[in-house]
Structure to design on (123 residues):
């Protein structure tokens, strides 16, 4: 069983920063890439960022480009999301996910998901 556990969420004022972590554990699994997604109340889940696990190539949604940075620590099997210049519209539950195999896009095809961590940005 693969477990993904997010942490680092919380309440922050607009313009502030948070760093999310996603620790993976459980049975050994292949990992082509990992990503962050978010879901705001009443909205569909949306892609935030992704990173290839070996090469470190990164991909971002336009809405977070220049403000968020995705990174990983392969030795710790942990994924991160540094979020700066936060806006109220960034308020959502943030999920990490693992994509085991390559597909032509980084928005779909994820195999494992965490339980989510709440991020609330006050104005």
């Amino acid at each position: 069983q693969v477990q993904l556990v997010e942490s680092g969420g919380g309440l922050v004022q607009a313009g502030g920063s948070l760093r999310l972590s996603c620790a993976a554990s459980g049975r050994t699994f292949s990992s082509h890439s990992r990503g962050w997604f978010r879901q705001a109340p009443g909205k569909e889940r949306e892609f935030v960022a992704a990173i290839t696990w070996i090469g470190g190539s990164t991909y971002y949604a336009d809405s977070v480009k220049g403000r968020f940075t995705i990174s990983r620590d392969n030795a710790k099997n942990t994924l991160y999301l540094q979020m700066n210049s936060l806006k109220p519209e960034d308020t959502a539950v943030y999920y990490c996910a693992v994509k085991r195999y390559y597909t032509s896009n980084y928005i779909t095809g994820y195999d494992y998901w965490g339980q989510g961590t709440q991020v609330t940005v006050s104005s």
Observations:
- The chain has no helices and eleven strands.
